[in-house]
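stage 2 :: seqdesign
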């Protein structure tokens, strides 16, 4: 599979070495820290994706897949150093990860320096496949614009006013910028923006500024929250009774543990990347069945993403017939493959995976521990005008 040509001829030694070679993949992600739950889901999904795509053999054309795990602890400097170690010392064929957008941005130049592929999953910031992108970066995870456009479709309407609350780093700021862009021309305006540190636990001051900015407006008023990790502000802001000003809280999808807090918001609408009961396809059927059997719980938000990345890696190597970087790039640009969400396709211009998103409405079932994001409408690839931002 790996190209080992000498003076136009393949040596017997090279053939023997190739036959016994392993395919090495580094998974570099924040195993410890605030996003630990995201990380575990991502890794479980990755391993299940590799298993599914190889028919359970964990081999491609007789070559064994070896996954090397590295923990960034959510520190950008660690992500950079660990990716250098993976490409240089471990000689991996490609890498997958990380969880955090800030860590991902530190890792991108390393892929370019070593001329090796980094499949970004699940870091979200637009700049990863935008201004900071290079040709060795492919992303299976959704980007901020996919979140933003799908939520704009779900929330925009005549005489709707929206305030935003987000974390003050790449994920939050990219997300709000993309959301505002997606609302352009819909007649819905962003009245006020609040950015707070990622470890904020007291949202009183930010909420009061939002209330003051919106209380005298006529029409429908919504507070759109973009948040990752612990300390989700929705319930805390809701406890301050935004309803007295006619303000409703809105947000996108999240992991099952976070969806428990959504039970306070029956009827709330938004858009999500994944909920295990929504997609209807053979890959998702397998994932749900196997995840329940192995872990006793449904697959979650980032499990589906990890699986999509694992399948993408296997399909690319199979179709390229090689782990050579240039062969993989040529194969992956425009590549379509099936995931728990259905079809994904790597857009040739920026290697962002185009994919469906799901407009939902929250339903509360007392017998279910979390709120259920019921499907209103699947937003397919053709429904989501996702900008190319790497120019």
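stage 2 :: out
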């Amino acid at each position: 599979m790996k190209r080992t040509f000498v003076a136009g001829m393949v040596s017997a030694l090279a053939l023997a070495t190739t036959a016994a070679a392993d395919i090495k993949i580094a998974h570099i992600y924040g195993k410890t820290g605030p996003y630990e739950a995201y990380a575990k889901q991502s890794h479980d999904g990755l391993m299940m994706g590799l298993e599914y795509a190889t028919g359970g053999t964990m081999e491609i054309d007789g070559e064994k897949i070896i996954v090397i795990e590295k923990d960034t602890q959510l520190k950008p400097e660690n992500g950079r150093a660990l990716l250098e170690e993976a490409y240089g010392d471990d000689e991996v064929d490609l890498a997958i990860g990380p969880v955090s957008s800030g860590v991902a941005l530190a890792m991108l130049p390393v892929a370019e320096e070593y001329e090796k592929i980094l499949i970004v999953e699940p870091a979200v910031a637009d700049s990863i496949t935008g201004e900071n992108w290079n040709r060795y970066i492919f992303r299976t995870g959704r980007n901020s614009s996919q979140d933003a456009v799908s939520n704009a479709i779900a929330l925009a309407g005549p005489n709707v006013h929206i305030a935003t609350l987000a974390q003050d780093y790449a994920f939050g700021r990219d997300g709000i910028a993309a959301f505002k862009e997606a609302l352009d021309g819909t007649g819905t305006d962003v009245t006020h923006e609040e950015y707070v540190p990622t470890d904020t636990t007291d949202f009183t001051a930010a909420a009061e500024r939002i209330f003051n900015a919106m209380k005298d407006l006529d029409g429908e008023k919504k507070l759109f929250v973009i948040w990752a990790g612990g300390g989700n502000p929705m319930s805390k802001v809701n406890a301050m009774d935004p309803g007295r000003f006619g303000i409703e809280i809105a947000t996108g999808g999240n992991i099952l543990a976070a969806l428990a807090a959504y039970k306070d918001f029956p009827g709330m609408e938004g858009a999500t990347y994944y909920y295990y009961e929504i997609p209807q396809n053979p890959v998702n059927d397998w994932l749900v069945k196997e995840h329940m059997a192995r872990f006793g719980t449904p697959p979650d938000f980032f499990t589906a993403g990890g699986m999509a990345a694992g399948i993408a890696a296997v399909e690319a190597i199979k179709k390229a017939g090689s782990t050579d970087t240039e062969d993989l790039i040529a194969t992956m640009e425009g590549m379509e493959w099936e995931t728990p969400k259905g079809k994904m396709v790597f857009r040739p211009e920026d290697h962002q995976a185009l994919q469906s998103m799901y407009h939902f409405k929250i339903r509360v079932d007392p017998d279910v521990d979390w709120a259920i994001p019921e499907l209103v409408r699947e937003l397919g690839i053709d429904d989501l005008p996702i900008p190319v931002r790497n120019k």
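stage 3 :: structure notes
- The domain at 145-272+357-383 is CATH 3.40.50.2300 (Rossmann fold).
- The radius of gyration is 22 Å.
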